[in-house]
Amino acid sequence: MVAPLKLLGRKPLSMRRFIPALAAVALALSAGQAKADLIGYEQPLVRLGVGGYNVLHADKDAIFRGEYQFGTSLFYVHPLVGTEINTAGGTYTYFGIGLDIPVTDHIYIVPTGAFGYWSRGDGKNLGSHDEFRTGAEFDWRFNDGSRVGVSFHHISNDGITQRNPGVEEALLTYSIPLGKMFP
Question: Could you tell me the pTM of the whole model?
Answer without folding.
Answer: 0.77
